[in-house]
């Protein structure tokens, strides 16, 4: 896995112009020719991303649109080239680069931007999806309550909803029939993507998590790469 080679096939971000220097330089003369305001690759990438991250009003708890201006374009959902020996459907988490991949086969994978574990909680290895849930109840593990006593108020569970830390969908990760306390969960906070903030879990934007969840059955293999 350490030798996996990633080549983006549908990026639109590579070779982008520095818009600030462009506008402060030759934009005036181009404007005279009617060329000012041409759409850059960055603009096109965000326009495409806006479709993925639109509001989802049909959910039990309507999900708002994502403010994509708060996300680095490299974390937008994309189909990419990804060389791996893992079977189609396998989930591979790359905490070093804040990405999660769903292997599609034929050397391709769907890549999602993610938040990952903060220092001190990083782990690696193979697990699997033991169960899954929509708008789940969140119950903080005893280890969290010990570290953060304020979480004790939810010791009997926090009902599902937009304020629930697990969000709209969650995949519970198991090892040898035992729940690891780690999950792949959904978040509505775009500023967490590309950061290490959790105690071992991996978060995707709600719209991305709904997409992954719909294509991930119980028993799916999950590989956490070393950071």
Automatic annotation (TrEMBL):
<keyword id="KW-0961">Cell wall biogenesis/degradation</keyword>
<comment type="pathway">
    <text>Cell wall biogenesis; peptidoglycan biosynthesis.</text>
</comment>
<dbReference type="InterPro" id="IPR005490">
    <property type="entry name" value="LD_TPept_cat_dom"/>
</dbReference>
<keyword id="KW-0328">Glycosyltransferase</keyword>
<protein>
    <submittedName>
        <fullName>L,D-transpeptidase</fullName>
    </submittedName>
</protein>
<dbReference type="InterPro" id="IPR006311">
    <property type="entry name" value="TAT_signal"/>
</dbReference>
<keyword id="KW-0133">Cell shape</keyword>
<dbReference type="InterPro" id="IPR050979">
    <property type="entry name" value="LD-transpeptidase"/>
</dbReference>
<dbReference type="Pfam" id="PF03734">
    <property type="entry name" value="YkuD"/>
</dbReference>
<dbReference type="InterPro" id="IPR038063">
    <property type="entry name" value="Transpep_catalytic_dom"/>
</dbReference>
<keyword id="KW-0573">Peptidoglycan synthesis</keyword>
<keyword id="KW-0808">Transferase</keyword>
<comment type="similarity">
    <text>Belongs to the YkuD family.</text>
</comment>
<feature type="domain" description="L,D-TPase catalytic">
    <location>
        <begin position="89"/>
        <end position="225"/>
    </location>
</feature>
<keyword id="KW-0378">Hydrolase</keyword>
